[in-house]
Structure formats: structure tokens, C-alpha cells
Amino acid sequence: MSQLSLNQVTKHFVQAEQKITVLENSSYNFLAGQSYAISGASGSGKSTIMHMLAGIEKPTAGTINFNQRAITAADLQNKLGLVFQAPNLMPDLNVWENIALKGLILGAGLLVAKQRALDLLQQVGLAHKANAKPTQLSGGEQQRVAIARALYAQPAFLLADEPTGNLDVVTGQKIIDLLIFLQQKQQMGLIICTHDNYVLEKLAYRLHLAESKLI
């Protein structure tokens, strides 16, 4: 079973000559097939932890490990799927092209990438919007496209940083339900950084960031 791990990780920033510690000598193993919510006060550093798990930011000390070795660029491309608060879709590409682009980056041919994109759109309930432009979609639909794109390489872990932050309550809950359904169907790990009580109630494990520790 795949593991994504914080291994004695410390992370701090220096702002206006003041050191701000987000995480202090913390370790935790996330397992594929399980779902995790990370909560914490606003500004506590939840997103920074997600960015470290995703390889976007480096720890000040310690390592982020995938299957007990330091995470690599190949892991980021093939083993981790990322979803952010903003969908970050390319407005000049249509929906299936936004998803297929991930496949092209990974070296797939256009026909293969397109078919994979269409299959993923079917999974997230947007097959009928394959040729639409992102600006023609609602906020919830755009986030579904972002989820489909994140799943292109069949990742071992899906990381979602406040994925409902820009959505109304009902739409946000539908997105969370979709993420949980896909997580269970594909037996991947799901890690969501959130302040949403609905997420905390739905996911199997709840971690809270307080005083630079994951509790």
C-alpha cells in the first residue's frame, strides 16, 4: 500500500525579521485507500503543509517521502493529483483539452489523451460539457474538470487544498461527495485541507494543526 509521509518535518518562514514556525519536527504517514482532513485556524499553515506534501514547497528540515523515499518530480507527475481552491483552467482550451493537456505533458499521444479525458469527464458527470470552454461552466463544474485533470494519471493520492472555498454550500458538499466516491472507487488516498465541517464529518481521519503540531 502506497504511503505519503511527513518525516520529522519542520517548516518556518522569516517575515519582518520574525521567524514564523508552521510545523515543528512532525511526522505522519498517510495511506492510500484512506481519507484525511487537515483543519486549523486561518493562517495556521494548513496550505503550507499541503504544498509540502505536493512538492511545491520544501521543508526547512526533514523530508517528504513517497513509499519511504524522498519524493521526486516523477512522483509529483504520476503519483499525486492536485486540486486547489481555484480550478486554474486554461480559458482558451475547451474542457476535454484542459484535461488532455496533462496527458500530453506526460508523453501520451493526442488521441489517447483525448479518450482518457472523455472517460474522466464521464466519471465526474460532465461528458456533455466536453467541448465547452471553462467560462461557460459554473464554479462547481469547473472544479469537477479540475478533479478530472488531477485524476488523469491514476494517482495514488489526491491532495485538495480548500476545494470548496469558492463554492456555495450545496455545490461544495456535492464536490466533497464526488471526491469521496472517487477515492473509494479507485482506492487512492484523499487528503483535504479544509475549515469545512462537512468535510470533517465525512472523511475517515481528522488532523488538526495547532501550535506547529499535527494532532
Describe the structure concisely.
With 215 residues, the chain is of the alpha/beta class.
Descriptive report:
By secondary structure, the protein is an alpha/beta fold. It is 35% helix and 29% strand. A hairpin with a 2-residue loop joins strand 9 and strand 10. Helix 3 packs parallel to helix 5, helix 4 crosses helix 5 and helix 5 runs parallel beside helix 6. The longest helix has 18 residues. The protein is globular and about 50 Å long. The two termini are 23 Å apart.
- SSE run: EEEHEEHEHHHEHEHEE
Assembly annotation: single chain
Shape: globular
Number of strands: 10
**Cα distance spanning the termini:** 23 Å
Radius of gyration: 17 Å
Which strand order does the major sheet show?
Answer: 6-7-8-3-9-10
Return residue spans where pLDDT drops below 50 for at least 5 consecutive residues: none
Return the structural class.
alpha/beta
Mean pLDDT: 93
Give the biggest sheet: 6 strands, mixed
How many DSSP helices?
A: 7
Helix coverage percent: 25-40%
Strand content: 25-35%
